[in-house]
Amino acid sequence: MTTLLLALWPLFALIVAGYFLRLREFPSEAFWPGAERINYFVLFPALLFSSLATAPLGNPALPRLAAAVMLGLGLAWAGLLLVKRVRGWPAARFGAFAQGALRFNTYLGLAAVGSLFGKEGLALAALMLALMVPAVNVMSVWALTAERGVSVRSLLLPIVKNPLILACLAGALVNLSGLGLPGGTDRLLGLLAAASLPLGLLCVGAALKPRELGGEIPALGWNSAIRLLVVPLLAFAVARVVDLPAMESTILVLFFALPTAPTAYVLTRQLGGDSHLMAGIITLQTLLAAASLPLVLTLMNGQA
Protein backbone atom coordinates (compact mmCIF):
# COMPACT_ATOMS: atom_id res chain seq x y z
CA MET A 1 0.00 0.00 0.00
CA THR A 2 2.83 2.41 0.89
CA THR A 3 4.53 1.80 -2.45
CA LEU A 4 1.29 2.49 -4.33
CA LEU A 5 0.63 5.69 -2.40
CA LEU A 6 4.16 6.92 -3.04
CA ALA A 7 3.67 6.25 -6.76
CA LEU A 8 0.18 7.77 -7.04
CA TRP A 9 0.00 10.75 -4.69
CA PRO A 10 2.16 13.04 -6.92
CA LEU A 11 -0.27 12.43 -9.78
CA PHE A 12 -3.27 13.56 -7.75
CA ALA A 13 -1.24 16.47 -6.36
CA LEU A 14 -0.83 17.72 -9.94
CA ILE A 15 -4.60 17.37 -10.52
CA VAL A 16 -5.32 19.42 -7.39
CA ALA A 17 -2.72 21.98 -8.46
CA GLY A 18 -4.40 22.33 -11.86
CA TYR A 19 -7.76 22.96 -10.20
CA PHE A 20 -6.43 25.72 -7.95
CA LEU A 21 -4.37 27.30 -10.73
CA ARG A 22 -7.50 27.67 -12.85
CA LEU A 23 -9.48 28.85 -9.82
CA ARG A 24 -6.91 31.61 -9.38
CA GLU A 25 -6.96 32.29 -13.14
CA PHE A 26 -3.24 31.62 -13.40
CA PRO A 27 -1.66 32.04 -15.86
CA SER A 28 -5.00 33.01 -17.49
CA GLU A 29 -8.36 31.49 -18.38
CA ALA A 30 -7.29 31.38 -22.04
CA PHE A 31 -4.25 29.24 -21.21
CA TRP A 32 -6.08 25.99 -20.42
CA PRO A 33 -7.92 25.37 -23.73
CA GLY A 34 -4.65 25.93 -25.60
CA ALA A 35 -2.74 23.67 -23.22
CA GLU A 36 -5.30 20.90 -23.70
CA ARG A 37 -5.07 21.19 -27.49
CA ILE A 38 -1.27 21.11 -27.71
CA ASN A 39 -1.21 18.14 -25.36
CA TYR A 40 -3.94 16.25 -27.20
CA PHE A 41 -2.60 16.88 -30.70
CA VAL A 42 1.19 17.01 -30.18
CA LEU A 43 2.66 15.98 -26.82
CA PHE A 44 0.49 12.99 -25.96
CA PRO A 45 0.65 11.47 -29.46
CA ALA A 46 4.45 11.78 -29.22
CA LEU A 47 4.37 9.70 -26.03
CA LEU A 48 2.18 7.00 -27.57
CA PHE A 49 4.14 6.92 -30.82
CA SER A 50 7.53 6.58 -29.12
CA SER A 51 6.21 3.96 -26.68
CA LEU A 52 4.81 1.77 -29.46
CA ALA A 53 7.70 2.34 -31.88
CA THR A 54 10.05 0.70 -29.38
CA ALA A 55 7.63 -1.75 -27.70
CA PRO A 56 8.50 -5.46 -27.55
CA LEU A 57 5.71 -6.71 -29.80
CA GLY A 58 6.95 -10.27 -29.42
CA ASN A 59 5.62 -10.49 -25.86
CA PRO A 60 3.71 -13.82 -25.77
CA ALA A 61 1.14 -12.34 -23.37
CA LEU A 62 -0.03 -9.68 -25.87
CA PRO A 63 -2.77 -11.79 -27.55
CA ARG A 64 -4.19 -12.65 -24.12
CA LEU A 65 -4.00 -9.01 -23.06
CA ALA A 66 -5.89 -7.97 -26.21
CA ALA A 67 -8.51 -10.64 -25.57
CA ALA A 68 -8.89 -9.51 -21.96
CA VAL A 69 -9.36 -5.87 -22.99
CA MET A 70 -12.07 -6.64 -25.52
CA LEU A 71 -13.81 -9.21 -23.29
CA GLY A 72 -13.88 -6.79 -20.37
CA LEU A 73 -15.27 -3.95 -22.47
CA GLY A 74 -17.80 -6.27 -24.13
CA LEU A 75 -19.17 -7.56 -20.83
CA ALA A 76 -19.40 -4.05 -19.36
CA TRP A 77 -21.20 -2.80 -22.49
CA ALA A 78 -23.65 -5.71 -22.43
CA GLY A 79 -24.45 -4.98 -18.79
CA LEU A 80 -25.08 -1.29 -19.56
CA LEU A 81 -27.42 -2.15 -22.44
CA LEU A 82 -29.37 -4.50 -20.17
CA VAL A 83 -29.77 -1.83 -17.48
CA LYS A 84 -30.79 0.74 -20.11
CA ARG A 85 -33.53 -1.59 -21.31
CA VAL A 86 -34.81 -2.14 -17.77
CA ARG A 87 -34.63 1.50 -16.69
CA GLY A 88 -35.70 3.02 -20.01
CA TRP A 89 -33.08 5.78 -20.00
CA PRO A 90 -33.17 8.27 -22.88
CA ALA A 91 -29.99 8.56 -24.93
CA ALA A 92 -29.05 11.88 -23.31
CA ARG A 93 -28.74 10.22 -19.89
CA PHE A 94 -27.61 6.81 -21.07
CA GLY A 95 -24.76 8.43 -23.00
CA ALA A 96 -23.50 10.10 -19.83
CA PHE A 97 -23.88 6.94 -17.73
CA ALA A 98 -22.18 4.79 -20.40
CA GLN A 99 -19.22 7.13 -20.69
CA GLY A 100 -19.00 7.28 -16.91
CA ALA A 101 -18.74 3.49 -16.78
CA LEU A 102 -16.54 2.85 -19.84
CA ARG A 103 -14.29 5.80 -20.61
CA PHE A 104 -11.05 6.38 -18.73
CA ASN A 105 -8.66 9.21 -17.96
CA THR A 106 -5.76 8.39 -20.25
CA TYR A 107 -3.36 10.94 -18.74
CA LEU A 108 -3.83 9.57 -15.23
CA GLY A 109 -3.61 5.99 -16.48
CA LEU A 110 -0.32 6.38 -18.31
CA ALA A 111 1.17 8.48 -15.53
CA ALA A 112 0.26 5.76 -13.01
CA VAL A 113 1.62 2.97 -15.22
CA GLY A 114 4.84 4.92 -15.78
CA SER A 115 5.27 5.44 -12.04
CA LEU A 116 4.67 1.77 -11.27
CA PHE A 117 6.29 -0.05 -14.20
CA GLY A 118 8.40 2.40 -16.22
CA LYS A 119 8.95 2.09 -19.98
CA GLU A 120 7.95 -1.56 -20.17
CA GLY A 121 4.59 -0.79 -18.61
CA LEU A 122 4.05 2.26 -20.83
CA ALA A 123 4.57 0.13 -23.93
CA LEU A 124 1.91 -2.35 -22.78
CA ALA A 125 -0.44 0.49 -21.86
CA ALA A 126 -0.01 2.06 -25.30
CA LEU A 127 -0.93 -1.25 -26.92
CA MET A 128 -4.04 -1.40 -24.74
CA LEU A 129 -4.98 2.13 -25.77
CA ALA A 130 -4.76 1.17 -29.43
CA LEU A 131 -7.63 -1.25 -28.73
CA MET A 132 -9.58 0.57 -26.04
CA VAL A 133 -9.78 4.08 -27.48
CA PRO A 134 -11.52 3.10 -30.76
CA ALA A 135 -13.89 0.69 -29.02
CA VAL A 136 -14.90 3.12 -26.28
CA ASN A 137 -15.35 5.97 -28.79
CA VAL A 138 -17.75 3.88 -30.87
CA MET A 139 -19.73 2.86 -27.77
CA SER A 140 -19.90 6.46 -26.53
CA VAL A 141 -21.15 7.90 -29.83
CA TRP A 142 -23.72 5.12 -30.22
CA ALA A 143 -24.96 5.58 -26.64
CA LEU A 144 -25.53 9.31 -27.20
CA THR A 145 -27.19 9.01 -30.62
CA ALA A 146 -28.97 5.65 -30.68
CA GLU A 147 -32.49 7.12 -30.46
CA ARG A 148 -32.10 9.27 -33.54
CA GLY A 149 -30.10 6.75 -35.53
CA VAL A 150 -26.39 6.75 -36.23
CA SER A 151 -24.53 6.19 -39.48
CA VAL A 152 -21.35 4.19 -39.91
CA ARG A 153 -19.62 7.41 -40.95
CA SER A 154 -20.53 9.22 -37.74
CA LEU A 155 -19.22 6.27 -35.73
CA LEU A 156 -15.95 5.89 -37.59
CA LEU A 157 -15.06 9.52 -38.34
CA PRO A 158 -14.06 10.40 -34.74
CA ILE A 159 -11.83 7.31 -34.72
CA VAL A 160 -10.15 8.06 -38.05
CA LYS A 161 -9.43 11.65 -36.92
CA ASN A 162 -8.35 10.78 -33.39
CA PRO A 163 -4.67 11.79 -32.96
CA LEU A 164 -4.12 9.20 -30.22
CA ILE A 165 -5.27 6.35 -32.46
CA LEU A 166 -3.23 7.68 -35.39
CA ALA A 167 -0.14 7.89 -33.16
CA CYS A 168 -0.65 4.29 -31.98
CA LEU A 169 -1.00 3.03 -35.55
CA ALA A 170 2.05 4.98 -36.75
CA GLY A 171 4.16 3.77 -33.82
CA ALA A 172 3.18 0.15 -34.44
CA LEU A 173 4.02 0.47 -38.15
CA VAL A 174 7.45 1.93 -37.38
CA ASN A 175 8.05 -0.88 -34.92
CA LEU A 176 7.07 -3.58 -37.41
CA SER A 177 9.16 -1.97 -40.17
CA GLY A 178 12.31 -2.23 -38.07
CA LEU A 179 13.25 1.40 -38.80
CA GLY A 180 13.49 2.37 -35.14
CA LEU A 181 13.94 6.01 -34.10
CA PRO A 182 17.28 7.06 -35.63
CA GLY A 183 19.16 10.36 -35.75
CA GLY A 184 18.09 11.72 -32.39
CA THR A 185 14.39 11.22 -33.13
CA ASP A 186 14.05 9.19 -29.96
CA ARG A 187 15.44 12.10 -27.93
CA LEU A 188 13.07 14.60 -29.56
CA LEU A 189 10.05 12.39 -28.92
CA GLY A 190 11.27 11.77 -25.38
CA LEU A 191 11.35 15.51 -24.66
CA LEU A 192 7.84 15.96 -26.04
CA ALA A 193 6.58 12.93 -24.12
CA ALA A 194 8.12 14.13 -20.86
CA ALA A 195 6.00 17.28 -21.01
CA SER A 196 2.78 15.44 -21.81
CA LEU A 197 1.75 13.74 -18.59
CA PRO A 198 2.40 16.59 -16.10
CA LEU A 199 0.59 19.05 -18.37
CA GLY A 200 -2.23 16.56 -18.92
CA LEU A 201 -2.76 16.07 -15.19
CA LEU A 202 -2.81 19.83 -14.60
CA CYS A 203 -5.46 20.12 -17.35
CA VAL A 204 -7.51 17.34 -15.70
CA GLY A 205 -7.60 19.38 -12.50
CA ALA A 206 -8.43 22.57 -14.37
CA ALA A 207 -11.44 20.83 -15.96
CA LEU A 208 -13.04 19.82 -12.65
CA LYS A 209 -16.46 21.40 -12.00
CA PRO A 210 -17.45 20.96 -8.32
CA ARG A 211 -20.56 23.10 -8.83
CA GLU A 212 -21.97 20.39 -11.11
CA LEU A 213 -22.18 17.88 -8.24
CA GLY A 214 -25.53 19.12 -6.96
CA GLY A 215 -28.93 17.66 -7.81
CA GLU A 216 -27.84 14.22 -9.08
CA ILE A 217 -26.18 12.71 -6.02
CA PRO A 218 -27.74 9.17 -6.23
CA ALA A 219 -27.00 8.85 -9.96
CA LEU A 220 -23.46 10.21 -9.52
CA GLY A 221 -22.87 7.85 -6.60
CA TRP A 222 -23.91 4.58 -8.20
CA ASN A 223 -22.24 5.44 -11.53
CA SER A 224 -18.98 6.19 -9.71
CA ALA A 225 -19.25 2.94 -7.74
CA ILE A 226 -19.68 0.98 -10.97
CA ARG A 227 -16.72 2.64 -12.66
CA LEU A 228 -14.31 2.68 -9.73
CA LEU A 229 -15.20 -0.63 -8.02
CA VAL A 230 -17.41 -2.96 -10.10
CA VAL A 231 -15.68 -2.56 -13.48
CA PRO A 232 -12.19 -3.15 -11.98
CA LEU A 233 -13.55 -6.30 -10.31
CA LEU A 234 -14.81 -7.44 -13.71
CA ALA A 235 -11.38 -6.74 -15.22
CA PHE A 236 -9.68 -8.73 -12.46
CA ALA A 237 -11.97 -11.70 -13.13
CA VAL A 238 -11.26 -11.50 -16.86
CA ALA A 239 -7.50 -11.36 -16.19
CA ARG A 240 -7.81 -14.54 -14.14
CA VAL A 241 -9.86 -16.29 -16.84
CA VAL A 242 -7.33 -15.55 -19.61
CA ASP A 243 -4.39 -16.19 -17.24
CA LEU A 244 -2.58 -12.87 -17.66
CA PRO A 245 0.85 -12.42 -16.06
CA ALA A 246 1.06 -10.18 -12.98
CA MET A 247 2.13 -6.91 -14.63
CA GLU A 248 -0.34 -7.22 -17.49
CA SER A 249 -3.13 -8.02 -15.00
CA THR A 250 -2.32 -4.98 -12.89
CA ILE A 251 -2.26 -2.65 -15.90
CA LEU A 252 -5.58 -4.06 -17.15
CA VAL A 253 -7.26 -3.57 -13.78
CA LEU A 254 -5.71 -0.11 -13.40
CA PHE A 255 -7.17 1.10 -16.70
CA PHE A 256 -10.58 -0.31 -15.81
CA ALA A 257 -10.36 1.43 -12.40
CA LEU A 258 -9.55 4.91 -13.73
CA PRO A 259 -12.05 7.76 -13.47
CA THR A 260 -13.80 8.69 -16.68
CA ALA A 261 -12.19 11.03 -19.21
CA PRO A 262 -12.69 14.83 -19.06
CA THR A 263 -13.15 14.79 -22.85
CA ALA A 264 -16.44 12.93 -22.28
CA TYR A 265 -17.95 16.32 -21.38
CA VAL A 266 -17.08 17.77 -24.79
CA LEU A 267 -18.53 14.79 -26.68
CA THR A 268 -21.70 14.87 -24.55
CA ARG A 269 -22.28 18.55 -25.34
CA GLN A 270 -21.58 18.07 -29.04
CA LEU A 271 -24.07 15.20 -29.35
CA GLY A 272 -26.85 16.67 -27.22
CA GLY A 273 -26.37 14.57 -24.09
CA ASP A 274 -26.90 15.58 -20.46
CA SER A 275 -23.75 17.69 -20.03
CA HIS A 276 -24.63 18.71 -16.44
CA LEU A 277 -24.77 15.04 -15.42
CA MET A 278 -21.57 14.28 -17.34
CA ALA A 279 -19.64 17.11 -15.67
CA GLY A 280 -20.74 15.85 -12.25
CA ILE A 281 -19.69 12.28 -13.06
CA ILE A 282 -16.24 13.42 -14.23
CA THR A 283 -15.68 15.57 -11.14
CA LEU A 284 -16.87 13.05 -8.55
CA GLN A 285 -15.04 10.10 -10.10
CA THR A 286 -11.78 12.05 -10.31
CA LEU A 287 -12.04 13.07 -6.65
CA LEU A 288 -12.97 9.56 -5.46
CA ALA A 289 -10.24 7.90 -7.52
CA ALA A 290 -7.60 9.32 -5.18
CA ALA A 291 -8.87 6.77 -2.62
CA SER A 292 -10.34 4.02 -4.83
CA LEU A 293 -7.37 3.50 -7.16
CA PRO A 294 -4.81 2.63 -4.42
CA LEU A 295 -7.47 0.51 -2.70
CA VAL A 296 -8.33 -1.52 -5.81
CA LEU A 297 -4.69 -2.11 -6.74
CA THR A 298 -3.79 -3.10 -3.18
CA LEU A 299 -6.68 -5.58 -2.95
CA MET A 300 -5.80 -7.00 -6.34
CA ASN A 301 -2.13 -7.50 -5.43
CA GLY A 302 -3.24 -9.18 -2.22
CA GLN A 303 -5.25 -11.72 -4.25
CA ALA A 304 -2.58 -12.31 -6.88
From TrEMBL:
It comes from the Bacteria. InterPro entries: Mem_transp_PIN-like, Na+/solute_symporter_sf. GO terms for biological process: transmembrane transport. Keywords: Cell membrane, Membrane, Transmembrane, Transmembrane helix, Transport. It is found in: Cell membrane. The chain crosses the membrane at residues 38-58, 65-83, 124-144, 164-181, 188-208, 220-239, 251-271, 277-300. It is a multi-pass membrane protein. Its main location: membrane. Pfam families: Mem_trans. GO terms for cellular component: plasma membrane. PANTHER family: AUXIN EFFLUX CARRIER FAMILY PROTEIN. Belongs to the auxin efflux carrier (TC 2.A.69) family. This is AEC family transporter. It comes from Stutzerimonas stutzeri (Pseudomonas stutzeri).
